[in-house]
Specification:
- The chain is α/β, with parallel strands linked by helices.
- It has helices spanning about 20-30, 40-50, 65-75, 85-90, 120-130, 150-170, 185-190, 200-205; strands at about 10-15, 35, 55-60, 75-80, 100-105, 135-140, 175-180, 195-200.
- An eight-stranded parallel beta sheet has the order 7-6-5-4-3-2-1-8.
- Strand 3, helix 3 (about 65-75) and strand 4 (about 75-80) form a beta-alpha-beta unit.
- Helix 3 (about 65-75) crosses helix 4 (about 85-90).
Length: about 210
């Protein structure tokens, strides 16, 4: 048991490849926040549903040519890792919308194939984000390597938690740890996750082989 209050952890339903009707059904059951990986697919669903009571999170890799669409349609971005992308999101965020909530993605397991800044590099990127008025730094995100080793899962998540606490010491707005998915959410919650990204356990396994250009 993590000895955590239930309301200290939010559920982000990862709805990539799910159609609008599926998302509407989940919303009717009380789920509010949905995570999408592919911009064009997500924007189509956002427009089709046209619901102000849904909170849209972008959680996939960010291509430069997709920053405007992300800035215009999402409330949260979890996967920020480059200064250039931060500036583009800031410039594209419509002034009538509140600042875009952003998380810095950290590569806590050091995999060459994984996105994210190296541990420690988040501090420099955080300084840049704080200088941009249309962005609001809310915390950190990580996707550690898949493993059934609970101790290793917790080690990776504990590292992200320590990095978040360092940022939080100088910025009270840093309140979010996006970590943990269907197969490792228990370890993530035990190490302080405030937002868990769950797709398979909610919607079942899906074909995600198609990627946007």
């Amino acid at each position: 048991m993590a000895n955590r209050a239930p309301d200290s952890v939010r559920l982000l339903a990862v709805s990539k490849t799910c159609d609008a009707a599926c998302i509407a059904e989940a919303r009717a059951c009380g789920q509010m926040a949905f995570g999408e990986n592919f911009v064009q697919e997500a924007v189509g669903k956002i427009r089709e549903l046209d619901r102000a009571d849904i909170e849209w999170h972008f959680i996939g890799p960010i291509q430069s040519n997709k920053t405007r669409a992300i800035a215009e349609h999402f409330s949260w971005v979890h996967s920020l890792e480059r200064e250039k992308i931060a500036h583009r999101l800031n410039e594209a965020r419509p002034p009538h919308l509140p600042p875009l909530n952003v998380l810095i993605q950290v590569n806590v397991s050091g995999e060459a194939s994984k996105s994210g800044v190296a541990p420690g590099a988040e501090r420099a990127l955080a300084i840049v984000i704080r200088s941009l008025p249309r962005l609001k730094l809310r915390g950190l995100m990580a996707i550690p390597e898949p493993t059934a080793d609970i101790a290793l899962q917790r080690t990776r998540f504990a590292l992200l938690r320590r990095l978040q606490l360092e940022l939080q010491a100088s910025d009270s707005a840093v309140d979010t740890l996006s970590m943990g998915m269907s197969d490792d959410l228990e370890a993530a919650i035990a190490e302080g996750a405030t937002l868990v990204r769950v797709g398979t356990a909610i919607f079942g396994r899906r074909d995600t082989s198609t990627r946007e250009k």
